[in-house]
Predict the structure.
Amino acid sequence: MLFGFFILTVLGVLMPRGPRSLAMQTMAFCIFAMAYDLCFGYTNQCSLGHSVFFGVGAYGVVLSLLHLQSGILLGLLIAFVAGMVVAFLMGSICVRLTEAYFVIVTALFSAIFHLLSLDMTWLTGGDDGLSVTLPDISVGGVRLSLYDPMTNYYFILVFFLASYLLMRRITEAPLGKVFISIRENEKRAAFLGYDPFRYKLAAFVLSGAFTALAGSIYALTLRYATADLFGLYWSIIPIVWCLIGGVGTLVGPCIGVALMFFFQYYVSAWWTHYLILFGVLILVILRTSRKGLLGYLLGR
Amino acid sequence: MASEVASALLFYLVNGLIWGLIIALIALGLSFIFGVMGIVNMAHGDLYMLGAVFAYWIFSALGNFWLSLLIVPVAIGLLAAPTERLILRPFEGHPAVTMIATAGLSFILQQLVLMTYGGVPKELPMPLQGSFDFLGVAYPLYRLFIAALSLVIIASVWLFLHRTDYGILVRASMQDKEIASAMGINVNTVLVFTFVLGCVLAAVGGVLAAPVTQVFYLMGNDVILLCFIVVIIGGLGSLGGTLVAALVLGGVEGLLAYFLSPTGARAAVFAFMVGVLILRPQGLFGTQRG
């Protein structure tokens, strides 16, 4: 994985403009995918409500830039914390529920946020969204502008790397081991003295916070946020990323994102109904190996 | 003035209740499929959509709306049976996995319809003209037909489940698949049958709704969450509960639509449901597992 980051660092200089902007979006989605897997792959909570955090992150940074005139870094922090708070509130309601109910209640939350964001145009701009101009970032006396594509690329790469390292630290720490033990056998973990609710909630909150970070970075690359980011699409797509790449790892979801992006940009060029292939792909993967491509390769 | 408000409210309420009956049809199918086979069918809304799209096709080809009430169930049945047997069977019993698989199925169905039917919403003419005076409100006759037919279908499903031999087999499989199988019930055919029945119910809901809504390839997304709520609130496998929950939801959403925007009304209903689920995770009427 670190080798992958090295390649990304080198490629940043070499890549032409088009692929580089694709790579920037891909990296934002990689953070999303890894964050989702923290919840889905590590504690087996199949949430359909992650679009809430994605949208909250995007609006968190855009609104704090527009109304608080906060800098970009402070805006990202606000988005991260907002995602954490929303995830905590949502999680304390949902995490207790059994599998099917958890899926449906999180989907309900996603629908409520989507409907409200469409309705409250004074705050969110509704379907049209809110656009934002990005102020310069000053770090230690150096002023950086995200309008410079190269700066923007490395800015996102830094956050991608930082998120990966943080999440790897979490999953390799004892906390991560408890997550996995709960995934494998919740009753036994409870018997050993770990309260499953608290740990599942912790995973949910961490996942929500990093998802919000991904949303805010995505909003920065788009330079706007719209109510669409709360839509159900953004709740289903991370499941697909994780499934394609590999559930229960951090690298797998990133592979899934990269493959999907390849699909979306090159297959959609010659066939607009590529979502059919997408659906077929989901069924085939579920049928052959539920652990995704990485799991399939490692399992051989 | 007051009577005008009252009659407007009544109109919204009746509208909501009739919508609730259509939702009840769809949700009933969802409840069977989940109750018997453990499939969280995310593609269920798309079967409703398929019903409406087929109705549109049949109307434009044959010029007769009523024929679609006969043809659509057969067509959907022919589609659904192999889908269950060949695609969904290996995933059954794992709610999260079936949810993802059916979400994939939903993508496929929507895109196939988009390819053939197009992305523009279309409308069907009312198959029944005329209106019915109900407490001073003129009400379109076709909507009353929707209500009547839905009630007849729901009643016959109840009779089927509780008064026929095959209904007993279905209920037995719903309670415990393994024991039912051990008792000599051919669970395989029960599974296929239940899936087909559930899909046909959704498609008939789509046919009935086609003339009163816009026929659109994403129209399933509007109903799917509502149906899940109805199933949960009504309690799994509880036919009466599903009907009551659908009527209450439809009525409340109809009334709220008078005061709030339609999106606001739906958000309020969803928020209310979240509250109900926190207080009573087993649903308002259900006593079964989740």
In short: Chain B touches chain A at residues 34, 40, 87, 90-91, 95-97, 99-101, 103-108, 110-112, 114-115, 221, 225, 228-229, 232, 261, 263-264, 266-267, 270-271, 273-274, 277-278, 281, 290 (CB under 8 Å). The mean pLDDT of chain B is 85. Residues 22-217 of chain B form one domain.
